[in-house]
Amino acid sequence: MRTIWLFPGQGSQRPGMLAGLPAADRQLVTQVTGVELDDRDYRDSVKNQLAITILQMAQVDQLKKAGWMPTAVAGHSLGVFAAAYAANVISKADVLAVVKRRAQLMQAAYDPAEYGMGVILGLTRREVEDLVAQVDGPTTPVCASNQNAPTQVTVSGKKTAIKAVLELAQQQGATKAKLLNVPVLSHTPLLAGVAEQLATTLHKYELHAPQALYLANYNGHLVHELDPLAYDLSHNLAYPVYWDTMMDVATELDLQVAIELCPGTVLSKLLSSKCHKIKRISLAQYGIDDGLYLLDKWQK
């Protein structure tokens, strides 16, 4: 059965989400990174990114132990790392080391109290870009970033500038315009320097050609070779996530089931809205046991 595994990024984390995490995985995080996950407060980006990533990799292990392998993988922002792990590109320990470095670089680059992200629903990307152009400037940097759906666009930059864009969006008839619950700035050219530093870090680790189709954030398309995949891992934080394009491509892959790993539930819905014939399983909703039950049932 042809499946796509979807890996959300930051924003849907919640206290208690690591309740079922195997003790060995929690210990591995501490062993590799020196960070102890407490599963209570996710305001710290390092703990947040490590917690989401280890949770997703543990679920990948459970799916594979049950005999499943993805036909395709797609990660949203931070989710690219667990997606690469699922495609057998990089080891679990190396993912943790790289993700810790990524989070530290992002956290140090811009004050999270002053920089962040917002989301606008109900306007096209062109409309959002026109609003951004009215606000963006040397002291008020802001850009249109992730394209999650045709009329769902995020904006990244200085919070005062984001709020100004959100206000303009509401005046123009947006159905929703709000700041996002992410502890760091992401998906903006402001992080180009961080991306280069992360690429240097990534080169220290052994990477392998993907054993599943990989949909890249930075251009929205399938990549078949290791070099563009590695570029996506290191540089996606300096580009918009072209999720809407990624899902358009996914609908052409003759997929039967979309499995969304924790802690999110939105990505599989976005794909299903494009292709109703693709069944979906959100592990945050069903849990791993019921998720495996449904996979076995649908395979028969």
Automatic annotation (TrEMBL):
Residues 6-275 form the Malonyl-CoA:ACP transacylase (MAT) domain. Keywords: Acyltransferase, Transferase. InterPro entries: Ac_transferase_dom_sf (IPR001227), Acyl_transferase_dom (IPR014043), Acyl_Trfase/lysoPLipase (IPR016035), Mal-CoA-ACP_Trans/PKS_FabD (IPR050858), Malonyl_transacylase_ACP-bd (IPR016036). SMART domains: PKS_AT. It catalyses: holo-[ACP] + malonyl-CoA = malonyl-[ACP] + CoA. The keyword Acyltransferase applies. Pfam families: Acyl_transf_1 (PF00698). The keyword Ribonucleoprotein does not apply. SUPFAM superfamilies: FabD/lysophospholipase-like, Probable ACP-binding domain of malonyl-CoA ACP transacylase. GO terms for molecular function: [acyl-carrier-protein] S-malonyltransferase activity. It is an enzyme of class 2 (transferase). GO terms for cellular component: cytosol. This is [acyl-carrier-protein] S-malonyltransferase. One of its GO terms (biological process) is fatty acid biosynthetic process. Transmembrane segments: none annotated. Its EC number is 2.3.1.39.
